[in-house]
Fold these 3 entries.
Entry 1:
Amino acid sequence: MIPHIRIEEYDYPLPDGRIAKYPLARRDASKLLEFRDGKITEHHFRDIPLLLPENALMVFNDTKVVPARLHFCRPTGAHIEIFCLEPVRPSEYSQAFSATDCCRWKCIVGNVKRWKSDVLTLYNPENAADVADLDLKAALVGRDGGTATVEFVWSGGEPFSRVLEICGSVPIPPYLNRETEDIDRERYQTLYAHYRGSVAAPTAGLHFTQEVLDEIRAKGIDMETVCLHVGAGTFLPVKSSDVAEHTMHREPFAVSRDLVRKLKDGGRPVVAVGTTSVRTLESMYFAGAGCLERGHPDEISQWEPYDREYGYTFAETMDALLGYMEANGMDTFVTGTRIIIVPGYRFRAVDALVTNFHQPQSTLLLLVSAFIGGQWKPVYDYALSHDFRFLSYGDSSLLFRSN
C-alpha cells in the first residue's frame, strides 16, 4: 500500500550560511555525527575506522561524475545551457562515452523555448584551440516533458568522454549558488570513482582519504563496490504535498557476482556509504524476489516495496539472484531502479549508513528518517546547534539502523 506522507513534516530551517559552499582543505577533516542506539556523539571523520562494527562489509558507490554541463550559443547570440542526463543512442554508457563523432543524450536544456531548429555551436569565448578543433555542435531532436533529446556531433575522432572533459564543466549542485571552479574537478569526485555516468556526486564518499580507506582495510573490514549512476533528480526537494504524488527518476545500477555471493553468505553487518548505495542494496532484494517468483528480475519500480508483504529472507533473495547470474554466465548484474525509501519501509540489507546532511523536504531526508526510526529531527537539531556543515560539501554522519 502506497504510504501517504505529508512532506511539510520533513521540513527544517536551513540558513544559507550553514550550507558548505566549498570543501575543507582535507577530505577527512570534516565532522562526523554518530547516531547509535538513540544516542548522538560527535567525532571527526578520520576517526570513522574506530567506530565501524567489527567484521563489517562496507559498500561504496564507485560511479564517476562527468563534466556534463555544456554551454552553447545560437546564431543570434543567445546562450543555451545543455545538461546531459543519460545516453539515448548508444544507450549504454560505455558505448556512448566511446562514440567518436556523434551521439544522442537525454538532457535538461536551459532556455529551451528559445531553441527552435537551428544547430548550436559550443560557446568558446576564449577561443581555446582544443575546443575549436572539436567543432562541437548540438541539434534538438525532440522534447519530452522537462527534458530534450539532443544530438551532438564533433570532429577530430575524440571519444565523447574526452569531448566532455575538454568542453564541459562539473555540474555542482545549484544550492551552492556559485559557478563551477577548478577545485570542483577534483573535490566533487570520490577518490575511488571509476565508472563514468553520474551527473551528481555520491557525496557521502567525498570524505574518504586514502589513509582512512587503508585504516578501514587494516581493521579487517571487507570493502566492496556497487555502481549506481546518480541522476539529476536525486537531490531535488519533493514538490507535491503528499509524497505519494512524487515521481522518482530511474537510475541504472550494476553489482558484481562476488558482492551478491558475500551478501548471500551474510553473518556480518553491512555498512552502506551513501544513500545511493542503500538504494542499490535494497533494490537487490526485490530483484532477487523477482528471480524467486518469475525466474528473472525486472527493474525495480518506485512503490514495489509497498505493494504487498514479502516473506523472503535477504539471504534467500541473494541466493536466487546469484543462481540467475550463474545460469546466465553473468559476472555483473545490471538493471535500473526507481525505488523510494520512506518511513514505513522495512530494510533488508543495510545495518549502518554513512551520509551527509540533506536538504529539507527531500527524498534523502525521508530515507534517513526511515532508517533511524523517525528520529531525524533530534539528529538534525543537534547538527544545526553544533555547527555542522550541510549538504554536498558539508559534514558527515554515521547512522545505525533503528528498525
Entry 2:
Amino acid sequence: MRTLSVNLDTRSYPIHIGAGLLAQTQLIPEKLLTGKAVVITNEIVAPLYLEAVLNGLRAGGTECIPIVLPDGEAYKSWETLNKIFDALLSNRCERKTPLIALGGGVIGDLTGFAAATYQRGVPFIQIPTTLLSQVDSAVGGKTAVNHPLGKNMVGAFYQPQVVIADMDTLRTLPPRELAAGLAEVIKYGFIRDPEFLDWLEKNVDRLNALEPEALAFAVERSCQNKADVVAKDERETGDRALLNFGHTFGHAVEAGMGYGSWLHGEAVAAGMVMAARFSEKLGLIGKADVQRVVDILVRAKLPVAAPELGAGRYLDLMGHDKKVEGGKIKFILLKKPGEAFICNQYDTAALNAVLSTPTQTHA
C-alpha cells in the first residue's frame, strides 16, 4: 500500500492506494466510526463489493446502513439525492454519522453533496471502485448533481476524510469503463506532466491489459498530480482549472447527447481532441502535437470524434459551463504537450471552425 496526502492544513487527508483494501476499515479514522455509518453504492457495485465493506465495518462494532441506488449518470440528479436524504432521515442519522461512497464518480459526487448538505455537513469517506474515480473524482472535494442545462452545475466543495483506492476493484471494470478512466489519466500528462505522458505512450497497452504494476503506477502518479494541484488551489480560483482540459467541450457532449449516452471519460477524450485542434488553429501547437493527442487516445480505445451538434448548440451548452466568466467561455488549451494554460482571449472564428467540424480528428 502507498499513501499520499492532500495537504489542506486542518482538512488534509490521506489517499491509500493498494490491493485488498476494501475490508481494511482500520484505514478509516477511528473517531469517524463511533456508532453507525451509511454506505452508499449502486446496483452494479453492490453485488461485488458491498458485503466486504459492511463486514469490515460490522466487525469493528459499527452499525451499517446500506443505500443502493440505480447506476448511471442519468441518476446524478436531485431526485436521487432526495432518496439519500429520505434514507438518512428515516434512519435518524446524525451529524457524526459518516457517509461512505462505494462506487464510481456518480456515487462519489452524490454522496459528497449529500454529506456537504445533510444537517449542514457530516463526515465523508471515498472508496472509489473505478479507474476514473480513483484518479480524479474521488480526490479534491468536488461534489455535485447535474441539471438538464449543464453538468455538475449544482454542488459544493467538500473534502473527504480519507480516500481508499483498492486496485483489486479495477479487475471487474468493463473495458469501456476502463477506457473512460484512462482519459483522465492521459489528461495529466498533457496538462502538466510530460514525463508521465512519455511513460503513458510507452505503456498504454499494459494499462489496457490491466497489468497491476502499470495500473498502480498510473493511479499513484495521477493522484499525486491531482493532490498537488488541489493543495495549491482548492476552490478553482486559478490553476486548478487546468484539470478541466477537454472538459468544456466534453461536458457539452454529455449534456447535448443526454446524460449517460457518453461516459464522462469518453466525452473528455473527444473534448481533448477538440481543445488540441483549437490550440493548433490559434497557432499554439503544431499538427504533430494534435496527432499525438489523437494517437494515444485511439490506443486507449477512446472516441476521438465528437458528435455533430452544430456550432450554435455547442456554444449554447458551453455557455452554461462553470468556467464562464463575464459571459466569456474559458478554455484550457495547450502551449505544448505537457503544458496547458487557461485561455479567455481567442479568435471566435477559430472556435467556430472547430465546433462546426467536431468529427475531424486531424488538424
Entry 3:
Amino acid sequence: MSDQGNPAGGLRLHHRRTLLIGFAFFGILLLWQVYDSWCPTFLTDIIARRMYNMSSAQLKNGEAHKILNVQWIVGIIMACDNLAALILLPFFGSLSDRTRTPIGKRMPFILVGTMVSAIAFPFIPLFFHRGYAAGMIVMMIIVLIFMMMYRNPAVALMPDITPKPLRAKANGLINIMGYLGGAFATVLGIFLKLSDYINVYDEARELWIIELPFVIASVMIVISTLILFTSIKENELAEETKEEMALGEKMAAVETPVGDDAPMSDANRRMLLAILSAEFLWFMADNAIATYVGNYVIYYMNAASSATMMLTIVGGAASVVGFATAGQIADRIGRKWTVSLGLALTVFSVFSACFVSPTGIVTGAHGEFAFPAILFMSWIIKGYGMALVHNCSFPMVVELCPNSQIGKFTGFYYTASMSAQTITPVALGLVFKMTLLWRALPVYATVMYILSLLVFTLRVKNIRARKPESLYGQEAPDEN
C-alpha cells in the first residue's frame, strides 16, 4: 500500500486488527439498537395503560392523544438512564486510563460490563410482559450502568493503538462493524414485530415476540466480546505500536503540540469546547429521533413497527457507505469540512421529513397506513451525512489529548453526547405534551441540527495533519 498523497506519511493502518477491535462496536450497537427500538414503546404502553386503565389496543385505535400525553414521562425515564451515563462514562474512562492488569487496562471493564449486561438484558421484556414496571426500569438501569463500564473502555481501545493521523479511517472501519451489529438487531425487528405485540389485547399477547430479540442480543454481545478478547492482546499491542504512536503524536492535526505533562493550551481548549458544543447539539437531535421514532411510526404513521426497522436498515446501509468514504473525504478537504458537509446533508434530509404525513390505508390486520417513501430517502441522506459527522468528530477530540489520557477525553466526548441525551427526551416529550403533534419530532431535530452546523462551522478550525517533512519546521500545518 503506497503512502503517496497520504497525510499519514509512513504510517500504515492495520485493517485486520482494526476490524477485530470493531467487534466491540458490533456488540454495543447491537444492544443499543434493540434497547432504543423496544424500550420507549414498552414504557409508553405500560404507563398509558396504568394512567388511563385501558388496553394498549384501545389506546392506539381510539385514544391516540393520550399516547402523546405520556411521552414526557417516557422522556424523563429515558433521561434518568442517560443522567447515570453522564456520570459513569467519564468515571470509567479515567479509571481505565489508570488501570494496569495482565490482560490490559480496558479489557477488564469490557469483560465485566458485557457479562452483567448480557444477563440482565432479557429481563426487561419479561418484566414488561408481566406488568412489573418497577422491575423493568431497574433492569434497564442495570444494563445501562454496566454498558457504560463496557462502552468507554471499548471505544478508547482503538485510539490506544492507532496513531493520530490514521484514526479517522480506523474509526470508519470500526463503525462499519458497529452498524453491522445494528443491522443484525434491525433484521430481528422486521421478523419479530413489536406492533404485533402492542396491537392486540393484553390477554392475547405472546411473550416470545418481544423476548427473543433481547435473548439473541445478549448471546451475540457475549460472542463478539469473546472474539475481541481472544484476538486483541492489549499489552502486547501497546508495546508493539510505541514507535508508530510517537510518530503519530508529532504529526497530529492540532494547533499547538500536545504533551503528556504540559497543561492544555488555550487554542486546543477552545477547539475542544467548540467540537463538544456542536456535538451536544447534534446529539440533541439524534437522540430525539432515536427515542421517539418507534412511537412516531406506530402511533402517528399507524404503520407496522417493521417500518422503523426498514428505516434503520436503509439509514444504516447509507452510514456504511459514509464510514467507508469519510476518511478519503477528510484527507482531501479536512475533518472540519467533512463534518460540516455531513451536518448540511442531515439538515436537508430531516427538514424534508417535516412535511410528511401518513398516506392511504392499505389492507391489513390492523388497518395500517402505507408508509411514505420520502422518509426512506430522508433516512438514506441522514445516514450518510451523520456517518461523516461521527467518523471525524471523535478522532478530532482524542487528537487533542496525550496518549495517556485517551480514556479521559473519550469521557469528555461522551459527556457531551450523554448530556444531550439526558435533556432531549424530556424536552421533546414536553413539546409533544404542549403541541399534541407528532410532526414536532422532525421540526425539533431540524432546529438542533442547524444550530450544530452553525457552531461547528463558525468555531472549529480546519487543521490538517503534519507531513513527515514538516516535523522539523520546514512546513506549517494547513489551516482554513
